[in-house]
Task: inverse folding
């Protein structure tokens, strides 16, 4: 299974990035081979311009099965699921490695969408979640 993890940088010791739609980097990890297979980087200019939908499309092209998230807006959840990507909720971790360990140990549940209605969610997904 291929899992994408939002991160500040490209190592397992990198900080887990809680705001999926603003992440500067996504590590793509193969859980069967237990290895990092690729990294998607965004320049500082791209981080603020790319919407969540575009980021999900980039991950889908890498044939991702799952993403690890702190939370997921309803619009993002629906779009991920439509592309065959399952979001899993991660809480209380500091590093990418910790998040992956919880996922591989079966400690994570599928994330449930939320309707926060904040301007941040609308700016990332380009629409109101409601």
Result:
């Amino acid at each position: 299974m291929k899992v994408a993890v939002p991160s500040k940088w490209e190592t397992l010791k990198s900080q887990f990035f809680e705001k999926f739609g603003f992440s500067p980097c996504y590590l793509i990890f193969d859980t069967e081979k237990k290895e990092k297979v690729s990294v998607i980087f965004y320049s500082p200019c791209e981080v603020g311009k790319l919407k969540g939908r575009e980021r999900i499309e980039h991950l889908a092209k890498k044939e991702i099965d799952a993403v690890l998230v702190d939370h997921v807006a309803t619009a993002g959840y629906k779009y991920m699921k439509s592309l065959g990507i399952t979001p899993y909720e991660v809480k209380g971790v500091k590093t990418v490695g910790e998040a992956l360990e919880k996922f591989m140990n079966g400690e994570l549940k599928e994330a449930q969408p939320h309707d926060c209605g904040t301007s941040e969610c609308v700016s990332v997904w380009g629409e109101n979640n409601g």
The first helix runs from residue 44 to 49. The longest strand covers residues 35-41. The helical segments are 44-49, 52-61, 74-82, 96-104, 119-125. Residues 52 and 125 are 5 Å apart (CA to CA).
